[in-house]
Amino acid sequence: MVADFRFALRGLLRTAGFTLVVILTLALGIGANTAMFGVAESVLWRPMPYANPERLVQVWETNPLKRWTDAPVAPANFANWQKRNSVFNELAAYNAADMKGASGFDVFLSGTGEPQRLKAITATGTQPRYRGREQSRRWTPSPEPE
Predict the structure, then answer these.
(1) Which of 26, 28, 51, 123 fits a 20 to 30 Å CA distance from 79?
(2) Under a CB-based contact definition with an 8 Å cutoff, are residues 107 and 139 in contact?
(3) Sign of the dihedral through C-alpha 128, 133, 138, 144
(4) Residues 94, 58: contact at Cβ < 8 Å?
């Protein structure tokens, strides 16, 4: 068995360029497979962090005249939908993009110590109830103005 291993090693060293290409191809394939499985596992197989994920629905606005599809809901339309709602238990709205299309807003948390940069979204006050559990850090506005 040791002799077979030595023979294989000599053959691989004799064709070092081919061996390098094979090793890089295997490494790239294994890495890509690991990345794709990681995404599939987190998106498809892991349950969503909500109490009843099968009851959640996301809706968008469309405007054929402006060729908008999957557009964020205008605040006035959302208020109208909330007022006229007879189908859903609750409606909530969120916006997770800034004006440049980036995901989340950069905000700074300051107080004692160095300010920390955080990503934040804007959301209506009913948003936390959908989670089914409290998060460790959250500020939720009260529905009534102070």
Answers:
(1) 51
(2) no
(3) positive
(4) no
pLDDT tens digits along 53-109 = 777 888 888 888 988 888 888 889 989 998 999 888 888 888 776 655 556 677 888
Q: What is the distance of C-alpha 34 from the center of its chain?
A: 18
Nearest partner of 143 among 120, 119, 127, judged by Cα: 127
For residues 71 and 121, membership in a common domain is answered with yes
**Predicted confidence band at 136 (pLDDT cuts at 50, 70, 90)?**
very low
pLDDT in tens, 21-56: 999 999 999 999 999 999 888 878 877 777 777 778
Question: By residue range, what is the domain housing residue 6?
Answer: 2-45
Closest CA to 141 of 130, 129, 126: 126
Verify that 112 and 59 share a domain, yes or no: yes
More confident residue, 134 or 123: 123
Segment holding 70, helix H or strand E: strand 68-71
Number of domains in the chain: 2
- Report which of 143, 137, 134, 144 is spatially closest to residue 49, judged by C-alpha positions: 134
